[in-house]
Design brief:
The protein has helices at 3-24, 42-46, 50-59, 79-93, 104-119, 126-129, 139-151. It is mostly helical.
């Protein structure tokens, strides 16, 4: 391919990508959070100390509750689509806003999962902590949060 043809191809490709990006912006996500019944919310039920509540809200609630705070980049496709999928998946696995609807066995299982995910540094996701510095935990914070989750399990020996 000659230099002139390659330059034309690159220009055409750039314009095509730009048009595709602009068209994607017309396909927005629904950022309406479902209604929250405070009496069913995990924080209201579990009444954690202030430092634990802060950790849970900063590291968990955006993806695992109906109180998602959407960042500015949630307005840009295709990132917005990825975020929407991630939030839907997070809520389907654990939704702190619906904690009061969980049976004791299910709640204990979720608490155990929270303990493990925090302990094993699986949660919060590194892709989340890149843009949410307050969700980055020290090892001591992780240990404290994991132990607190474990302490909230009921009926455990």
């Amino acid at each position: 391919m000659g230099k002139k043809k390659r330059k034309g191809f690159l220009k055409y490709s750039f314009i095509l990508l730009l048009v595709a990006f602009v068209v994607m912006q017309f396909f927005t996500i629904n950022k309406t959070n479902p209604k929250v019944e405070k009496a069913k919310d995990f924080i209201a039920i579990a009444t954690p100390p202030a430092d634990i509540e802060k950790m849970i809200r900063s590291a968990c609630y955006d993806c695992h509750s109906n109180e998602t705070v959407y960042p500015w980049y949630s307005n840009l496709a295709p990132v917005s689509w990825w975020l929407e999928d991630h939030i839907e998946e997070g809520r389907s696995h654990l939704n702190f806003s619906e904690w009061g609807n969980y049976e004791e066995d299910k709640a204990n299982h979720k608490l155990h999962e929270c303990e493990e995910e925090v302990e094993e540094k699986e949660m919060p996701l590194s892709s989340y902590t890149w843009s949410h510095g307050d969700a980055k935990f020290t090892d001591a914070q992780r240990d404290k949060l994991a132990k607190w989750f474990k302490s909230k399990m009921t009926g455990e020996e």
